[in-house]
Recover the amino acids of this structure.
């Protein structure tokens, strides 16, 4: 079946996202827009995934756990996981590799951690939009070690896109590449499958599904299995 998805959405934990991107608001807005599988992918943290997963479960929409990780080259890599626990463990590992700049909410925005009722239960003090110490290769490897699958984000965007930062598509193995449809793409994708997502930081950006994937069912497991198949195909293709 063709399943409408949006696999790159930020919650209010990301300082650059609006404070009203709460678990209830964003999950319900995505559902209203017709999305059947969404991925919440905050910068370098998974701490709002438990609440988003609980909300998604309660309204019968699928949540694919993710994190948008920053490499030392300032490249954004989406890391998708089969379950929230793996994402949390990866987030914990990332936190130890983040730079030591503290968040200044008035400058960068709040980094709110909420529960499934949208109550604030804490905030992240370390600035989440700074680079980690990991290279693109090391990030992809650490993602795999935690059971995840790496997909470089908005590769054709000037800031934080892989192509601009590195100047080429590296040999690093990814499951797919995310392409910004609004921007020109000047290189071939070397056979990679493309993902198209909203990268929503505001509720108004959640107006329609960004892509339809051919899946056996509208579940996060089915979406993750497809990414894993794509990842495995790369190994065969590159032999
Ligand atoms: Zn990004
Ligand atoms: Zn993003």
């Amino acid at each position: 079946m063709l399943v409408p998805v949006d696999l790159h959405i930020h919650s209010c934990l990301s300082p650059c996202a609006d404070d009203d991107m709460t678990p209830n608001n964003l999950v319900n807005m995505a559902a209203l827009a017709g999305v059947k599988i969404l991925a919440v992918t905050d910068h370098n943290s998974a701490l709002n995934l438990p609440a988003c997963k609980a909300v998604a479960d309660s309204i019968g929409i699928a949540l694919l756990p993710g994190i948008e990780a920053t490499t030392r080259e300032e490249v954004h890599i989406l890391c998708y996981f089969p379950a929230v626990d793996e994402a949390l463990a990866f987030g914990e590992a990332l936190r130890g590799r983040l730079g030591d700049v503290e968040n200044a909410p008035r400058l960068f925005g709040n980094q709110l951690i909420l529960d499934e009722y949208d109550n604030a239960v804490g905030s992240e003090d370390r600035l989440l939009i700074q680079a980690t110490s990991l290279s693109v290769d090391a990030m992809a490897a650490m993602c795999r070690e935690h059971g995840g699958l790496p997909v470089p984000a908005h590769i054709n965007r000037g800031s934080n896109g892989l192509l601009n930062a590195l100047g080429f598509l590296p040999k690093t193995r990814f499951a797919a590449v995310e392409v910004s449809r609004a921007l020109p793409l000047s290189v071939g994708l070397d056979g990679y499958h493309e993902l198209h997502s909203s990268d929503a930081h505001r509720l108004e950006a959640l107006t329609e599904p960004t892509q339809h994937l051919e899946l056996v069912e509208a579940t996060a497991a089915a979406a993750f299995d497809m990414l894993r198949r794509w990842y495995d195909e790369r190994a065969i293709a590159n032999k």
